[in-house]
Design a protein that fits this description.
This protein is an alpha/beta fold. Helices cover 44% and strands 15% of the residues. It has a seven-stranded parallel beta sheet with strand order 3-2-1-4-5-6-7, sandwiched between helices. Helix 3 (48-56) links the parallel strand 2 and strand 3 (60-65). Helix 2 packs across helix 9, helix 4 runs parallel beside helix 5 and helix 5 runs parallel beside helix 6 (160-180). The longest helix has 29 residues, at 108-136. It starts with a helix and ends in a 7-residue tail after the last strand. It binds NADPH dihydro-nicotinamide-adenine-dinucleotide phosphate (NDP). The site of NADPH dihydro-nicotinamide-adenine-dinucleotide phosphate has 29 residues, from helix 2, helix 5 and helix 7.
Length: 255
Amino acid sequence: MMYLEEIFSLRNRTAIVTGGGRGIGQVIALGLARAGAEVIIVSRSGGQETVDLILKEGGKAYELCADVTNEKEVDKTLKTIIERSGKVDILFNNAGICIHKDTLNATIEEWRNVIDINLTGEYIMARAIGRHMIEAGIKGSIINMASMSGSIVNIPQWQASYNASKAGVIHLTKSLAAEWVEHGIRVNSLSPGYIATPMSADVPEDLKAAWTPLMPMHRMGTPEELIPAVLYLASPAAGYTTGADIIVDGGYTCI
Ligand code: NDP
């Protein structure tokens, strides 16, 4: 096997992708499958489209419906995955939402919903998978979806709940990395800049136009441009990388 193929190979690995039915999750699921992993898509409305794309390329995948904020559903889903696939080696903890609203007009329910899905949901998933990895002696990789919004405050839209949730994800990641290092489990986060997906497609065009001069590359990223960073974190190539936040933002946060 070629050197690069060997260190980035995910052959015989099982990966869960939450929110893998569309957007970034769908593209990352394809990337993980191309590197050899069996991929399980977990979201509330399912991910058959992603599964079909992976199967068409000769990969292995299936979907299960679960809400990541519901601990019972997550535990039941994990039980099914262990019965079907035997184990989980990789979690791409990606499901998330964003609400653009200034703080004085946002409701407490909106705040709670964003924190519940983006932060508590990732905590519930990471905890369930971490427990499984520790019990089974799997030296796995957990990749939490953060955002550049966890390090900077986006303008001109206001989204305090989103920014706070993603800052929480970055520090949750470091906390779990330290806690589980003795078990050989690596926990890292990914912080993309603006990426063109259904989430960002809902954004009004005038707002997108306001972002362009703020982006050093003057364009949004594509989900495909996130695949290499995820493959790195998921694979043996990142054997000495844990507690890191990998920023892939076209330079947004450096100016
Ligand atoms: P999308 O809105 O396209 O996809 C979000 C996915 O999350 C959907 O598949 C959705 O499926 C799933 N999801 C939402 N809530 C839940 C839940 N409670 N339980 C299970 N699944 C859920 O978003 P993106 O692909 O754009 O974003 C993916 C992640 O990347 C998010 O965490 C986002 O914050 C982050 N990100 C996105 C950026 C961007 O510019 N797009 C930039 C930086 C970070 P369903 O509704 O069926 O459950």
